[in-house]
Specification:
The chain is an all-alpha fold and 134 residues long. Helix content is 55%, strand content 0%. The protein contains 2 helices and no strands. Helix 1 packs antiparallel against helix 2. The radius of gyration is 43 Å and the shape is elongated.
Length: 134
């Protein structure tokens, strides 16, 4: 029996090196750092059956809004009447002293009205925050 052997063939090797570019090129981004980072404002999450959604809480909020508007209306009437009477006194004044005192009274009434409006604005803002409108 004769077995055949595989022949080994020797190939001549070339001594030259082949230059090739790499198949994969790495991405090298530039690193950019933020100068300031601001977070998004947080909002209240809405939860079902939250106390502000109950009828009793709604009645309380409506009552607070009603009393606020009623007190603002009363203050407007009383301070508006005080300012009007002070302006009328200033118009009818014969002496400079009477005119100046009436003008001061009018300014005091207007300043009191400004204080009432500022207080009402704060209360309205608090009611709006309770309702989640702000």
């Amino acid at each position: 029996m004769r077995t055949t052997r595989a022949r080994q063939v020797e190939l001549p090797t070339s001594r030259r090196k082949i230059k090739s570019s790499p198949a994969v090129s790495l991405w090298r981004p530039e690193i950019v750092l933020a100068t300031s980072i601001t977070t998004a404002p947080t909002r209240r999450s809405v939860v079902l059956a939250e106390p502000s959604n109950r009828p009793e809480a709604l009645r309380t909020q409506l009552g607070a809004a009603h009393s606020l508007l009623a007190s603002l209306d009363e203050a407007r009437d009383s301070l508006g009447a005080a300012a009007a009477s002070a302006h009328a006194r200033a118009a009818d004044a014969t002496t400079t002293r009477d005119r100046v005192s009436a003008t001061f009274a009018a300014y005091r009434a207007e300043a009191a009205l400004d204080d009432v409006l500022t207080g009402a604005w704060r209360r309205v803002s608090a009611l709006m925050e309770e309702r989640g409108l702000r």
